[in-house]
Design brief:
This protein is of the alpha+beta class. The chain has four domains: about 190 residues, Jelly Rolls; about 80 residues, no CATH class; about 230 residues, Beta-galactosidase, Chain A, domain 5 (Distorted Sandwich), CATH 2.70.98.10; about 325 residues, Glycosyltransferase (Alpha/alpha barrel), CATH 1.50.10. The protein is built from 15 helices and 46 strands. The chain has a 19-stranded antiparallel β-sheet that branches. Strands 1, 3, 4, 6, 10 and 13 form a six-stranded antiparallel β-sheet that branches. Strands 2-5-11-8-9 form a five-stranded antiparallel β-sheet, with no helix packed on it. The protein starts with about 20 loop residues before the first strand and ends in an 18-residue tail after the last helix.
Length: about 950
Amino acid sequence: MLPLIALSTMCAQMLGAVSGPILSLDLEQGWTHRTQGAWRLRFDHRELLAMRHPWQPNRDGDFASAARSVTVPEAWRGPVSLVFYCSDDYQAVGRYAGASWLTAEGFVGHRLKQVMVDGAIAWSEDISDAVKKGESPRYRVPLPVEPGRTFLLTLLVYDAAASTTELEGDFYQSGDDTTREGNPSATNFLSNVYWGDVCLTDGEAMPPPGKRPSESKVFEVHGRRWPTPTFGDAWPDTAATLEISAPAGLPEEGFPARCGVPIHAGKAKGANDVCLLSPEGKRFPAQKSALGSWPDGSVKWVLVEFPVKPDCRSLVLGFEPDKAGFTNKAKVTEEETVIKVDARRILFECQRGDPVTGVRGRGGKRVERVQLALDVMGEAIPGHADTFQIESNGPFTCTVDIGGRFEAADRTAATFKLRCSAFADLPFLRLWFRLFNDTDADLVVSGLELRLVLPCPPEKLRVPSGEVQPGFRLVQRTETRRELNGAPVAASAPMYVAWDGGAVVVRHFRELFPKAATTTGNSIVLNLVAAKESPVIFTPGEAKSHEIWVALGDTDPAQFAAAVRQPPILQNSQYFCATGVLGPARQHHGVPVLHEQATRAYGDKQWEDLGQHFGVRHFPDSPHYGGLPNWSNNYYERMLNLWSEWFMSGDRRWYDRAVDVCRHIMDVAIVHSAIPGKDWLGAMHGPGNNHVAGPWNPNLRVAGLELYHKLTGDPDARDAFLGVADFCLRSQAGTDGGSVRQQAGPFDTICTAYAETLDPQLLDAGAARVDSVMRAMDMRRGAWPDEHGSKVYRGNIPWMAAQMARPLYLWYHATGDLDAAQALVGLAESIICENTDWKAPGAVAGYSHNPRYPVTASYDLLILPMIYAAYELTEDSFFLDAANAQWKRWTTEKSFDSILNCYWNTPWLVWYLKTYNVIAHDEPARHATASDQ
């Protein structure tokens, strides 16, 4: 039994490296290990000696020790010192009850870290000392030994008092109203103590700081592999078959498709170096434009726009110059005061005042003008167009961007953007209308009308529930209640109003309630915010988009409305993953545990089945913690989560879900204009009250919004995600301070924006964030010591550390910054060594180091890619074995979290599972579509 010795802590110096005689003591061999009570020891992969006491009460006199005989070299001159690394994950000094809501079991004077020489204490510190983020604590302790002497050196953690004995400095806080006496776990006392780099030194000699052996492996692998290849798997074929997904069907005359297609790095210099072909090999005309580039300048995304007939099921993407052209072309002409669009089957003009005029179709079908009006607290304010810009001038799509104002007598109440598109040889007009509250006050809206003024009163009126008479009123009050002239009708059918000259459709008429449609005189009136009884308040900086389609002629209105709801797109999950635009990714075909879960748990479920709410400001969003009026606002990177599942599955439903979420985030969460007293321009509101909470760093992730831009071509999306990056630059969000996730979110956005622009400012910003990461970590352990629900325990929070893995990995691959790679490997290694059950490989406590939280595998899909990435960066089988064990455990437990929550690393995980042959990768035929529909 080791004696209980109460001595004051001896001072230890934190010194830099000085050359001189040094005797290193290998902690793996030559030591005698002893324990009493629940203490356990092991030498881990980091060359650290770990001493662990589980979360249970301790007894006085319990201990863990490592002892060995050491002989001081005779040639030394003295004095002799011991230099060593020592850290732990417990703190109590300086903490006290009531300092926060966090739980705390403060044990002061109970447990000591000690160095002993021949049984006498040479150094002693209470384990309750502060755990300091960003430090790898090294100590230099003078020893009472002379050159040539042999002595017994002991490293010891000693329980001086049982945790059931309350000492003077102890404190307790439950986080609720539970008393210490009423809490059976109040006397549980967990500790992990890590010793390393133990050296004897002569005189002023000081060894360099120790490092994990994996650091040299990262350096060696980097030297052989850098520069790393651009992301993407080989696609040796000269073409890729793309499915045309149009689940709801298409009008007989066809419908315009507009979608982004990814291209492998180096495959094409520009958009016209790829082409579309029919399945028979015939050239298929499409309007194409480049949406992004790889670092080598080759095109990364091509936006393709083309007409799709109902019988067209697939097209072939060819990697050769395009020679196809449109026989009949749409065009825009700009005159002094008017812009004219001629798409052959539909024509229109844009000029100051009413934004769209003179809409004409075949057979004399017409819309004289499109008018806008905003009702603010009973005041009707007309919309006035005053700026025009040609966004696209054919040959298939012609688009004019119109900017304007709702100008009251004494103020500008709001501004708007109206994007008008027509398509060669199709009778459709697309109106993308976006309202902005760019004032410094709430905008109280009781009505927002878009009026189609016809040459004469419309006849033969129809809505989804049947024929109607002039003056009818169709109202969507909630997602489950639609009324026609006050009587309930089917609430969820795609909305349209048809007349003898055409049809008009409002996309998401149900989802973005309240909405209404009626006729009055010569006009069809669409009220996009029909909120007279209960006005809707749009806050400063907020926007709202509405999509309206007009068809002139004899289009089947029900089929037209169905196509507007689910327009045609191109998809092939195997090819899309292989291009590398998502980073390392593969489809989860052949991974039944993922594939079946995504199908079984989600399948045909609608937004309401997934707990999402409806309404013009809330669709699709869900309550955040605490319930309404707190909203999630992209918690936790829902955009990229949904796109990830679509990439892996090819299931069209995930595409539609992702589009819905991205549009909501773009409008309501992104701050589009200055908010009085807040430097939030460009930022994203965090989760919280009424969509107006301040920016929250973990949510500042925009990779999903960047994908939305590329996959839809929506130019506003690019402005939005780069605006978030600009906010991160301006505010220094994600540097120095907060938990690992607080730094991870903005860093991820910097990575996204840098890949888009290669802006040197973003290069500097990314490097600064890597430096910030290094300042937060104890690199000797590889740990990021954070508090999580407890004031006294401080260690890794694996699921939050995994949020940092993606930007670290992307940054390393983009720039070769070795610190990013080292930080990623360090986090992975410490999770294996510190957060994994010693007796159960793969059993990672993924949610927290805090022993009060249950061990769960629900975040393993987020964490696993970080462990596999550490293997990629080191080629050390330790990481591969650990990852495989964790994967095996997860597939046994099948502890699924929601795809809406922290799912974005899963394509990366599947890539590793198939690349490292963890699972059989029985891929479908290369040209097969990968749809689950």
